[in-house]
Amino acid sequence: MKITAVAKKTVQKKTKGVRYSFRRINLIIAMLITALIASLSANYAISTPEQEYLPEQQSGNVIDLSKLELCDRFNLESDYLIQDIQLSKNWVLVGNIIDTNMGKQDVSVRLSPKSARYFDASNPIALTYEIKDTSVRGTLVQKEDMYTYASEIDTSTLNPGIYSIVISVFFPCDKVELASSDFNVSQPIYVTWTFDWEGYDVNQQYLDDMAYISDTFHMPMTHFFNPRLLMTSTVSQDRKNYLLSWINNRISNNGDSMGMHMHGLYDFVEGAGVEKSTTPRWGDNSTDGYDIPITNYSYEDMIKLLTYAKDLFELYGIPQPKFFRAGGWFANYDVLMAIRDSGFLADSSGRTYYKIGNFGVPGFWNLQSTTQPYQINLYDQNISGEPYLGLMEFPNNGADSWAFTSDQMIKRFTDNYSGGISGETKLVTYLSHPHWFYVDKQKMIDIFTYIEQYKYSEDKGPVVYINMDQAYQIWCSN
């Protein structure tokens, strides 16, 4: 019995010792965890924007910011209080712009969270902007986030050039300034893509290819539609209705527009009550009058042809177009006077000097690849200046994709714009044909692929794609 009692006491003693050991271990673990948390907290406090210590730049000593007066502390931190300046775009357009938003630059300023210690969040501080070295300036408005301020800046008064925006933040202690990255201000370079409908039916695959390129590059088309297609017996009524529906759908949904194109096709000429002309002709071996220049006809005959054409447009519910382009670019004084007196506002037959067809018939134009839209002179269609004819000319200065190579047409573009900031507004007008688009297709893909590097919609440059109605609005409203 004594042995058993001694054994029990020994076991109790050992158990008690084990309990004390566990307590000591738990205490040590708790102390280690507390020390680890304190260490992590200290490291976090140093690494966050709210750290209380700042290295002194000159001596290498550490400054305890919490022991400084507020504005002394501000002076040490002021370079870090504007966290970020964001601009909405690298390219802004001024001058003859189709959309006022092209001339707007949005700026957003983000303050550092540590700036909150220097102003009352319930009372926003003043932030202003100034486009450097200009008189353009204003204030920024605080957003829902107390650290974010923004403004829309009108740059329309700026000259083309490279600019930056200086942001000033007026804290109670002092003003802090920071400049944005640079942005470009340029006048726009406009590009139009026009189609001469020759009065025949069009292969459906060509229409699909035209739409594909237009939609891929977001380039609207201007259809110089031939009234002959509306009256000829060589095209079925169902097909006529389809082609018009196809164009009208694109006008409604893709930003296309419509002008008028005219050749001296015999059935159309006779339908207008005009005696057909058979010579001279430029000679493409046609027998239907396609290669008869409309300059063969007098002013009076042209009025009849244009009246008949407009009546056909009205019959089919086609709005009367602003633009006219002559077949083979054949427009002389009588033609230009007739289209003016028939209510057209502009012509697009002008081009560089040329001879056309097997017979090498010369045209009436002698413009340059860089010639821009102009008011036609009364006595010389190739120049501007008073007295005016009363008709605008929008030259086909980009050439046509039937007769020219893609390299030649790209050269027409670079003749007008070769990159960088443009000091003047320009227009480059290309011409293709729906009926022979198997020739034009790859050329236009090559051209638009090249121009893509300068597109304003991609924030890469000042190039904007428009239709001819928009071009008229731009040039004739300024």
Short description:
The protein is 33% helix and 23% strand. It is α/β, with parallel strands linked by helices and 478 residues long. Strands 14, 15, 16, 17, 18, 21, 22, 23 and 24 form a 9-stranded mixed β-sheet that branches.
Structure in words:
The chain has helices at residues 2-47, 70-77, 204-217, 228-231, 237-254, 266-271, 299-315, 333-341, 406-416, 437-451, 468-476, and strands at residues 53-55, 62-64, 82-87, 91-93, 104-111, 126-131, 137-139, 141-142, 148-154, 161-163, 165-170, 175-179, 183-186, 189-196, 221-225, 257-262, 323-326, 346-347, 355-356, 361-362, 374-377, 388-393, 426-432, 463-465. With 478 residues, the protein is of the alpha/beta class. It is elongated. Strands 14, 15, 16, 17, 18, 21, 22, 23 and 24 form a nine-stranded mixed beta sheet that branches. It has a four-stranded antiparallel beta sheet with strand order 3-5-9-8, with no helix packed on it. Strands 7-6-11-12 form a four-stranded antiparallel beta sheet, with no helix packed on it. The protein folds into two domains: 81-185, Sandwich (Immunoglobulin-like); 189-476, TIM Barrel, CATH 3.20.20.
Highlighted features:
about 475 residues; Immunoglobulin-like; 2 domains; 9-stranded mixed β-sheet; 4-stranded antiparallel β-sheet; 11 helices; 24 strands; about 25% strand
